[in-house]
């Protein structure tokens, strides 16, 4: 009897649950960096536990390293039902049972993940998918390592380990928990997986028409220190002389996206009221292409060389998802920006023959 109890205690003392946490965390992190799984249900199923369970479980495991209860037993003890307080480790020291750990793990994750995102908001990384994922992964692994170290510091018979299924003469059984505890474990785990499946389905469903996915598009110029800023645009240009500008495309579409930027030089005239303008002449100067990952920003450095002169000239930037059409206009563009300039030199009439170019940036 003593040998059998020793064997079971030895197996229960191994931190196999924390090994599973570490492997699941690394697998979830890896799934995000594999483009093939981007936005898929498989990716959601693997990543979701990293957001609502694994960090909390590692944290709770680092705090509570003992079993729910440990009794001092001997080979002579058989049917004696008298149990004193001295035979049981105090509640604060003896830890938690499996159901309590699962519940606290979910609650702790719900607190830890938003707190991590909040802290990232005050760093240069910001609240973006990759930085949040890396931070949560590092936090989970750190808590798991602390939990393993703390468990190893307590006697083996007192260490917590979830019930391990085994096959005996009576068939399958769970070591480490009573029949009631085992049944409760099954109910809690089943409920958790049901919640995960429901959430995964909701995330995998097609987005609503009024979703939050969008693309930010803006023009930048260099200031006196060489820093890119969204002001101080060059207003006075010269025909035939190139001017450096930067088109910024920030992808918030929740998936990788190919973009095309078309730069037009246009001559416009007012309708007399000042509220509307009409394009009387338009020329395509160049096209810029970029493939941007979700949450990333592409900076497309380029030059524009005006061919029209006058104070009625503007640069129009048209953004397209995918390829641009043969006849790009503000009406068929996904986004459009306008920069009014005063161009000197050359003729103030019609511009020269059409020219085009291509470029890319990152």
TrEMBL record:
Which stretches make up the DUF1616 domain? 21-342
Instruction: Give the Pfam families listed for this entry.
Output: DUF1616
Coiled-coil region(s) at which residues?
Answer: none
Record InterPro entries: DUF1616 (IPR011674), UCP018671 (IPR014495)
Q: Which branch of life, at top level? A: Archaea
Keywords from UniProt, A to Z, are: Membrane, Transmembrane, Transmembrane helix
Organism listed in the record: Halopelagius fulvigenes
Residues annotated as transmembrane: 16-38, 44-65, 102-124, 130-149, 183-204
The protein in question is named DUF1616 domain-containing protein
């Amino acid at each position: 009897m003593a040998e059998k109890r020793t064997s079971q205690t030895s197996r229960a003392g191994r931190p196999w649950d924390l090994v599973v946490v570490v492997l699941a965390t690394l697998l979830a992190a890896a799934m995000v960096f594999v483009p093939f799984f981007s936005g898929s249900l498989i990716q959601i199923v693997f990543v979701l536990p990293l957001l609502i369970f694994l960090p909390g479980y590692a944290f709770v495991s680092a705090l509570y390293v003992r079993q729910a209860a440990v009794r001092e037993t001997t080979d002579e003890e058989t049917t004696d039902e008298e149990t004193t307080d001295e035979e049981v480790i105090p509640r604060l020291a003896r830890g938690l049972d499996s159901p309590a750990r699962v519940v606290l793990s979910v609650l702790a994750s719900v607190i830890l993940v938003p707190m991590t995102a909040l802290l990232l908001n005050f760093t240069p990384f910001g609240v973006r998918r990759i930085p949040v994922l890396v931070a949560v992964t590092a936090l989970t692994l750190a808590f798991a390592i602390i939990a393993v170290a703390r468990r190893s510091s307590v006697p083996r018979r007192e260490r917590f380990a979830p019930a391990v299924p085994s096959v005996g003469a009576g068939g399958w059984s769970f070591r480490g928990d009573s029949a009631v505890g085992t049944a409760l474990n099954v109910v809690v785990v089943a409920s958790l997986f049901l919640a995960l499946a429901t959430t995964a389905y909701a995330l995998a469903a097609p987005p609503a028409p009024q979703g939050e996915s969008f693309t930010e598009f803006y023009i930048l110029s260099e200031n006196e220190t060489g820093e890119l800023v969204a002001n101080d645009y060059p207003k006075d240009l010269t025909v035939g002389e190139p001017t450096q500008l930067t088109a910024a495309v920030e992808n918030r579409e929740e998936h990788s996206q190919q973009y095309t930027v078309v730069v037009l030089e246009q001559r416009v005239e007012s309708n007399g009221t000042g509220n509307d303008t009409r394009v009387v002449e338009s020329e395509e100067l160049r096209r810029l292409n970029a493939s941007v990952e979700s949450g990333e920003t592409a900076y497309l450095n380029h030059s524009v060389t005006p061919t029209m002169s006058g104070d009625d000239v503007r640069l129009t930037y048209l953004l397209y998802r995918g390829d641009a059409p043969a006849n790009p206009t503000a009406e068929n563009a996904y986004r459009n920006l306008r920069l009014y300039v005063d161009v000197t030199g050359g003729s103030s009439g019609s511009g020269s023959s059409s020219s085009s170019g291509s470029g890319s940036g990152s």
